[in-house]
Design goal:
Blueprint lengths: L1 E2 L2 E4 L2 E4 L5 E6 L4 E7 L3 H19 L3 H17 L1 H12 L3 H25 L3 E4 L2 E7 L2 E5 L5 H15 L2 E5 L6 H11 L8 E3 L4 H10 L5 E5 L2 H11 L5 E5 L4 E5 L5 H13 L9 E7 L3 H13 L19 H16 L3 E4 L17 E4 L6 H4 L6 E7 L2 H8 L4 E2 L2 E4 L3 H9 L7 E2 L13 E2 L2 E2 L4 H6 L2 E7 L1
Parallel strand pairs: 1-5, 8-9, 8-11, 9-10, 11-12, 13-14, 13-19, 14-17, 16-17, 19-20
Antiparallel strand pairs: 2-3, 4-5, 6-7, 7-23, 12-22, 15-16, 18-21
Helix pairs in contact: 2-4, 3-4, 4-5, 7-8, 9-10
The structure holds nicotinamide-adenine-dinucleotide.
Length: about 475
């Protein structure tokens, strides 16, 4: 049990003044594993005031001080990998090896990347008679989800520290414990008090108060599109900067010269990583009609054997859904797919074989999915792959872009130039060619209703900067 009663405000653990606690449930066992306080408006105001008081100090810190803090943070994440990974697996249900690598390893490397970036970052530039000066945007609010909880927090905290900003973090209520461990870590590095503050609580209370707070200069939100719209609306009257990393329904397109065996095998992992609870998952597989039977045969066999179960056991590739609500939602999408006439290749309704507790669903694949179907259009956020076919490349592109979202994508072809030409026509923020790996230095973010703004790399740093022009 990890029971936390305090909030991290102004460099100290202070008693929360709100009523009640949020219980954290292990989705694999359905047991309560911890709790965090419900922050109040007084807590929000105290945290924002602490961040405001610390801003002049951190704004005027040197690059060397920021590099040192980021390197200390990265080293501490490494040192605490096992505790963080075990905690995230307990909160989210992520298979433990993936937790160590993606849930903790990636934030550690991202933090270090910002220390490295500061070594050569150009803060000033002369443009004719103007001196352009880059300055921190100010006091930031971070509202984060549960699916890659620490990665999404660090994707904001690290560049904000590098830029000279101060901040208040509100983590998700499903997976807040890792954020409390992060605050413990931050408490032990040389970061001035008040630069980083943590207030747990409900989105509709703490999240909304932060979004509308007159002393917050920027709100960086990751989560569902619906909540992102509410954050934008709450932020509008104070004209603060808002960046949004939202949902997705990304297309994975095999061109007609692609290797069907490779496409079939790789499409499963690209859709099912983190048990399908990944915003950039490639959930819509679009293949030439001539490939349908070959690809579907392989996918049917492989998805049927995709191991779902205890995230701490060796060989588990798919853990539970994060919550009972998420499990019910994914199950409802699977039922809708069957009812609307898609061909069920593997998986389906009910629990995976051999499991009778935990928030599990069966890893599932559907073929012959058409653009009118709900499972083609809506983000499912579970291990459900939908497959459709096309007859011309023009139709493939039209299908790929047939989404309100535009977060990620994939293209498969033996001709890389052809794949890149196709990728350029996709209305989406990232495209992976032939399974090209995730790059922590490349900008991550969405077109259309997948959001605005970019995280990671230099573009992620620039989100936290203002540019001042000084004329002579
Ligand atoms: P969510 O929108 O329910 O919650 C995200 C965060 O917003 C939580 O901290 C929540 O408490 C808070 N929140 C909720 N309502 C709010 C409001 N009205 N005002 C302020 N804050 C509010 O999302 P979730 O279920 O935690 O995460 C899943 C969603 O996040 C999926 O749609 C997924 O695609 C998306 N996501 C996007 C990215 C990305 O980078 N694009 C990354 C991960 C997850």
């Amino acid at each position: 049990m990890m029971q936390r009663n305090s909030l991290y405000i102004g460099g100290e653990w202070v008693d929360a003044t709100g009523n009640g606690t949020i219980e954290v449930i292990n989705p694999a066992t359905e047991q309560i594993i911890g709790s965090v306080p419900v922050g109040s408006s007084d807590d929000v105001n105290a945290a924002v005031a602490a961040a405001k008081a610390a801003f002049p100090i951190w704004q005027s810190s040197t690059c060397e001080e920021r590099i040192s803090v980021l390197n200390q943070l990265s080293a501490a994440l490494k040192e605490n990998t096992e505790e963080l990974a075990q905690t995230i697996t307990a909160e989210v249900g992520t298979p433990i090896d993936y937790s160590r690598m993606a849930m903790v390893g990636t934030p550690r490397v991202v933090t270090r990347s910002y220390a490295k970036m500061l070594e050569n970052f150009e803060w000033e530039e002369q443009v004719r008679n103007s001196l352009l000066v880059k300055e921190p945007v100010g006091i930031c609010a971070f509202i984060t989800p549960w699916n890659f909880p620490l990665h999404q927090i660090i994707g904001k905290v690290a560049p904000a520290l590098a830029a000279g900003c101060t901040m208040v973090l509100k983590p998700s209520k499903e997976a807040p414990l890792n954020a409390f461990l992060l605050a413990d870590i931050i408490d032990n590095i040389d970061l001035p008090a008040g630069v980083f503050n943590l207030v747990s609580g409900h989105g509709s209370e703490v999240g909304e108060l932060l979004s509308g707070h007159p002393d917050i200069d920027m709100v960086s939100f990751t989560g569902s599109t619906g909540a992102g719209v509410q954050v934008s609306q709450a932020a509008a009257p104070t004209v603060k900067r808002v960046t949004l990393e939202l949902g997705g329904k990304s297309a994975n397109v095999a061109l007609d010269d692609a290797d069907p065996v490779l496409v079939a095998k790789k499409s499963i992992g690209a859709c099912f990583q983190n048990s399908g609870q990944t915003c950039s998952a490639l959930t819509r597989l679009i293949i030439p009609k001539s490939m349908r039977d070959d690809v579907c045969e392989i996918i049917s066999a492989r998805v049927s054997g995709y191991t779902a179960g205890d995230p701490l056991a060796d060989g588990t590739r798919c853990g539970p859904m994060v919550s009972e609500k998420q499990q019910k939602s994914v199950e409802a999408y699977i039922s809708t797919g069957i009812r609307e006439g898609a061909t069920l290749l593997a998986g389906g309704e009910g629990m995976p074989e051999g499991l009778d507790s935990g928030y599990f669903v069966k890893p599932t694949a559907f073929a012959d999915v058409t653009p009118e179907m709900t499972i083609w259009k809506e983000e499912i956020f579970g291990p459900v792959l939908v497959i459709t076919t096309y007859e011309s490349e023009e139709e493939a592109l039209q299908l790929a872009n047939d989404s309100i979202y535009g977060l990620s994508g994939g293209v498969w072809s033996t001709d890389v130039d052809r794949a890149i030409a196709f990728a350029k026509k996709m209305r989406t923020g990232q495209v992976s060619i032939n399974g090209g790996a995730f790059n922590i230095s490349a900008p991550f973010g969405g077109y259309k209703m997948s959001g605005n703004g970019r995280e990671l790399g230099i573009h992620g740093l620039e989100e936290f900067l203002e540019v001042k022009a000084i004329q002579q």
